[in-house]
Automatic annotation (TrEMBL):
It is an enzyme of class 1 (oxidoreductase). Keywords: Carotenoid biosynthesis, Membrane, Oxidoreductase, Transmembrane, Transmembrane helix. This is beta-carotene 3-hydroxylase. It is found in: Plastid, Chloroplast membrane. PANTHER family: BETA-CAROTENE 3-HYDROXYLASE 1, CHLOROPLASTIC. Residues 1-29 are annotated as: Disordered. It comes from the Eukaryota. The chain crosses the membrane at residues 37-59, 122-142, 148-169. Residues 85-198 form the Fatty acid hydroxylase domain. It comes from Aegilops tauschii subsp. strangulata. The keyword Transmembrane helix applies. It is a multi-pass membrane protein.
Amino acid sequence: GLVPARPGQEAPEDAATAPARGAVSERAARKESERRTYLVAALMSSLGITSMAAAAVYYRFAWQMEGGEIPVTEMLGTLALSVGAAVGMEFWARWAHRALWHASLWDMHESHHLPRDGPFELNDVFAIVNAVPAMALLAFGFFNRGLLPGLCFGAGLGITLFGMAYMFVHDGLVHRRFPVGPIENVPYFRRVAAAHQVRPSAPNRTKLYPSFGSEL
């Protein structure tokens, strides 16, 4: 029969598998640390951007109300461009992914298709690239009055809203770079996450569910 191990002495099988268990535990701890780091960065950027956008919207519309005359055309233009830019960014993301990131910008985008070493990847630079025009449009629209500044403000707001949705759905829900809570159990979002795993050439994939840039 088996000889029981003496107190304080590991069984031969345990001694042989101890290094492997230690490596697995170390990798799990490192991944958890990376997720926490990215979560803190995502929360701080989200709160900061959301707060600034909300304040900008409030003060801009408050200024528009001054004098008693409501600039209906300008306000409707801002609203229309907010929705239009958010929807347009979805199609821009799909086109850029195929025509740019898997072509001339592959050296940067490749990091998204490799095992991540650390909380961030080189592909995250594209989020900053999209944020620059959004901030410029918001700033121009905020500090100026008129229909054109109102349209620019709406476009910047729409790009910002898309960026928030992208980070939540693509980075959080699909790639689990940070926890998204019970929202991941919603059937629709589960289908969005599953659609991301399907190859881009799959028929009707992008017709069924919006990718929120999830082809990225």
